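Dock zinc ion; give full complex structure.
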Amino acid sequence: MPRLDAEVRLSLMRAVDSVVDDVIDLTAELVKFPSTRGAEHTAQDFMAAEMRRRGLSVDRWRIDIDEIRHLPGFSPVHVSYENAINVVGSLRAERPNGRSLIMNGHIDVVPTGPVDMWTSPPFQPRRDGKWLYGRGSGDMKAGLAAMLGVLDAFQKAGYRPAADLHLQSVIEEECTGNGALACVARGYRADAALIPEPVSDGFIRAQVGVLWFQVHVRGLPVHVSRAGTGANAIEASFSLMQALHKVEERWNADKHQHEHFGHLDHPINLSVGKIQGGDWASSVPAWCVFDVRVAIYPGQDIQQAKQEIEQAIRDAARDNRFLANNPPEVVFHGFEAEGYVLTGGEEAEATLAGAHAAAFDGAALKGITSTGTTDARFFGLYAGIPGLVYGPKAESVHGFDERVDLESLRRTTQAMALFTAEWCGLERL
Ligand SMILES: [Zn+2]
């Protein structure tokens, strides 16, 4: 990192050390908000207040579907956006002479699952040694807290960025990405975007895309004493699921045709994540609806992938006496996310590598392939901004006892502060 002299670098790293307890406290405060889909607004109010407190000008708005539905990258929505609040805090340089930066994090978290399988309640943050436990601790409230921690460290060390800095706290990352898309639609641009998702020891070089869909299956209800004369919608769904796993198998077999994916055992993962059906144990069920998530490769055409899925369901339905005449319906109701490979970000990558080495005892920064998606695609694919995903180590993300490694959070925050300083340049306060 040529432009930052060693003394400035050291003062920033020490400044991070002096605010790291606040970063941890902020993470814990954020975990207390059960910001699952549709309930993110109170956590967003908190983020807006924290940004204002640090002197950022805050843009807080409700996402309007009609303003984004025509844009590339939009994913369909079948839920209310009544509480769909995005927050962006901006620190605009008086005499910008560096490169501008967006730091982006998502405030939404996934459901907890059965709470009795957690060691402690998921929305009560618990610290145990180097870990902070709680739903969203790693994915990605620690990252959001680190974004604010970078500003605090700058303040402590007596600096501010010499270029525009936008901190984005978005919703909908776990289901559509429409929160990040709404930021792009609102006009936020910068020379790079940094997303502190829990990657640990690396940044995301390539990530899959994701499709969500529901399969609606019909049956013929009869009294279960004459089950053979009816058609069981729930049991018929099993063969449809198997047919979908055949699609998954086929796509995985193609992995060597996709740069960055050939070395992975199983890059494409399909899972039935949710199921509902039937009304009564003694009635053959007349309906079943199941939700599926499947990955696609960067460059794989979304429309064609959707057609392959629909074709697989149609073919499997033909083998079923009832479904052959009552074909299941496939509804795409969430993620229609393209895959993304980070390109054109060499300068930002080099800067991040230098910052990472300084914070992690000289360690090299690895580019990894992610079998999940992130909001980086919106910056890279639709706004011409290299989207770097780099953040602290977390475990059990989307599982029980989700936790973030606090030492890794400290060092990652140092790296983020050094990256910001080097990328944006510094002004003395
Ligand atoms: Zn995440």
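Observed: The first helix runs from residue 6 to 31.
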